[in-house]
């Protein structure tokens, strides 16, 4: 009997414990963070240091309305189907082309009002001149007092001032009327359009962004150790994936005098003639800067991209990388303390802590902690 009672008590406790466990909320798993990875590789120091650059327009112009109103007209061009469409990105325009107009009704009325006021002022001026001429004759004949003569001259001066003011108002009204029309200031390519017919545009609203692509600039960053090798006026060629085995010759036209506050690199601009407009704004290009006389990374030493290096959470002033471990469905980021070696371009040698072939996280590493689940972005693995 006692054994039966004991078994029942244990069963009640077991069921109660299960119910309590079921009533507890399940621990929420941390969502996997998307990251990009690359394989650790060993390489000999190249003859040149390669950097990734961005192609930008040499000149970029934002065209904005100086006055407000409803957009009445946008320049139209034939589309691929032959029907007219509004001007859009990629279209070419020439100097003086009218891009858009706002409704002129309000500004036409202001011009008319200014013309009427000017006509009234000119009529008053004619009358004041006649009065001043008669006053002059009467005063010389001693038939008018000095105060009346002075009043006639003051009336003439006031009438002249009103005419000048009327002309200025008419000119201002004409300028406002002309400012309702946007004109291309140079031969350019449309990068963007932000208005439609019927849009209420206020003064200062940017309607179009234009760019001169007959010349472009490749912009990239270099560490301070390379500043002596990127001098203004030096020749430098760029290549792109879009045009394999084609070099676009250029010349260094600007080197930033100060480093970026976050990346600590100096911006360099290479101006490239682009008469055929093959290079487009936003393209990614590659530039190669002459390497130093001595090798910065010994041959055979593992290297990773600079973007993979983060501050170590275990050591005060040390560095670390995150290695992606595990199958695709359960990949986690594991922190590895590393010892760094020399730098070549945007790659840094790693003396200890990782081996060639391991996958290190190069994008999003600064947001991770040891053991965080991650999701590899498809196509992100770079050899």
CATH topology heading of the largest domain: conserved putative lor/sdh protein from methanococcus maripaludis s2 fold
Largest sheet: 6 strands, antiparallel
β-strand amount: 35-45%
Helix content: 10-25%
Order of helices and strands: HEEEEEEEEHHEEEEEEEEEEEEEEE
Continuous helix count: 3
Number of strands: 23
Helix/strand class: alpha+beta
Number of domains: 4
N-to-C CA distance: 73 Å
The overall average pLDDT, rounded, is: 83
| Uncertain residue segments | 1-7, 9-27
* Architecture (CATH level 2) name of the largest domain: Beta Barrel
Q: What is the CATH class name of the largest domain?
A: Mainly Beta
Give the CA-based shape: elongated
In spatial order, strands of the major sheet run 2-17-21-20-19-18
Question: How does this model look, in words?
Answer:
Helix 2 runs antiparallel to helix 3 (146-178). The protein has helices at residues 2-23, 105-140, 146-178; strands at residues 33-39, 41-42, 48-64, 69-74, 76-78, 84-86, 92-93, 98-102, 181-183, 188-193, 200-201, 206-222, 235-240, 248-255, 266-273, 284-290, 302-305, 310-311, 319-325, 332-344, 347-352, 359-363, 374-376. With 383 residues, it is of the alpha+beta class. The protein folds into 4 domains: 33-47 and 297-376, conserved putative lor/sdh protein from methanococcus maripaludis s2 fold; 48-56 and 210-290, Beta Barrel (Elongation Factor Tu (Ef-tu), domain 3); 67-104 and 184-207, no CATH class; 106-178, Orthogonal Bundle (Helix Hairpins), CATH 1.10.287. Mean pLDDT is 83; it is low at 1-7 and 9-27. The protein is built from 3 helices and 23 strands. A hairpin with a 7-residue loop joins strand 13 (235-240) and strand 14. A 6-stranded antiparallel sheet has the order 2-17-21-20-19-18, with no helix packed on it. The protein has a 6-stranded antiparallel beta barrel with strand order 3-12-15-14-13-16.
